[in-house]
Structures are given as C-alpha cells and as structure tokens.
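Final report, closing paragraph on structural work. Over the funding period we assembled a curated collection of sequence-structure pairs, and we close with a single example.
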Amino acid sequence: MFPKTGSKVYELYTAGKISEAMKLQQMGGIVSTKYAVALYSAPAAGIENALQKPKPRTPYEEAGDGVKKTVKELMGAVAYVEKAI
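Its predicted structure, as stored:
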C-alpha cells in the first residue's frame, strides 16, 4: 500500500541504519498490512495459499501472533461484509 515507504525501509536497512529502518517499519504498520493483504486481499484476487507463500524479505519480519490476532479482530467484520456485497 505504501511502496515508497517500503523502499525507504529497505534503503535504510541496506545502508546499515537498522534502527531507523525498524522505526519506520513499525510506524507504518507494514507487517500488519502485508499480513492483512495475504489473509484477505490475495484470496479475493484469486491467489491461493497466500499465507503459505514465501515470508517477507529482510528487513521485514513475519507477523507475530499478536499482530495476526489484531488484524483478524479489526478486519474480520469488514471482510465478512466485503464477501457479502
């Protein structure tokens, strides 16, 4: 959703500015956004088994259990409505 920010995170990481990259990554909610896309948008677009596809590349980490739970809680109802429309 935010490709320039994703590129900036990668740029900072490859420049050795790990803490800056992590700060920007956490601010943007990139991990939760990527998980939400794999969970909801990818299947709607016909992409099968999106959650089993390769994990995010460095410096991104896979969404933790807390992030996964929050995404499901916040977006689950909207996903239900989306399917019904």
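Residues 3-84 form one domain. Residues 34 and 56 are 8 Å apart (CA to CA). We thank the funder for supporting this effort.
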